[in-house]
Amino acid sequence: MMRDYAKISCTLWGSRKFRSLPDDAKLLYLYLHTCQHVNSVGCYVLPEGYATADLEWNVEQVRNGIEMLLKADLIAFDRTENLVRIVDFLKYDPFANPKHAAGAVKIAMKLPDCPERRRLLEEISRQTHAQPVLKQYGIDTVSIPYRYPEPEPKPEPKTKPEPKPAAAHDEDRKVELRQRVIAVLGLKGNELNTSGTFKVLGMDRDNWPMRLEVWNQHRLSNDQIILAITGAVGRARQKDPTFCPSSVKYFDQPIATFARDLMSGKVDATSERVAVPIYLIPEHAARDAAIRKEYEGLMDREDSASVARRKKLVKELADLKIEAAA
């Protein structure tokens, strides 16, 4: 959805970085803040054709402008995904409340998975109201900088370094996804093994790759797989707050269903239908169920007392989600 307005700090005109730019680059920077493609996190996909059409520039002008903004450290840009990230965007337009943060995280999770999106998630994790929302997506905010570390500067190599083998990237993905599934299930280190066997069959490192082979047939990203698993666990814990699957095979069907619905357009990558809250403490799940039950009982009543009570229940549910995720 297009934003109705954009917030640009007045200090921009006193910035040496900005003032040192030629007029074309200044216009492009203001365009990136105010174009119809910008969102609430200042990071979005911008194909060259969009900018050339909006600014009535040729491709070379757009490319030169982006290069100048990159050198001035005013933006970052992923050339493979055409993903632009406005540097310090959230510093001047921070999240105002949990609802604002939830919408922003949802937008961020739909962006292409690349280094700039990972840096954006790290920036979001430092925002007020954002950490509880990120945890609902199975993202441990403390580990973001370690999971996606910034590369240290290296001297220019004399010979072109060998690219990291595809198998190494695949292994990193397996390890990361396993850690996130453990986090979603709420398992602690001392709970992973029970009487010499894994509490959740298939979570051991020997059998985990076999499970991933099944899930990878659906060509989903780690984030999408976590969404499907999060939804399945959340729905199960609405009925049984202590639910924990005996085997990760339990998630085969929810992941397949999510992939099918995604392909058909029935849901998007961050559909609310699968982003059901997860409660790791039974008392939280019980309170959630009680609030929802009372709310449903008031749905057909329009007297002032019932309307006021429904509003209060909505606030109680929002507060509960924040409390549970803290």
UniProtKB/TrEMBL annotation:
This is Uncharacterized protein. Residues 149-173 have a biased composition (Basic and acidic residues). Residues 144-173 are annotated as: Disordered. It comes from Paracoccus liaowanqingii. It comes from the Bacteria. The lineage of its organism: Bacteria, Pseudomonadati, Pseudomonadota, Alphaproteobacteria, Rhodobacterales.
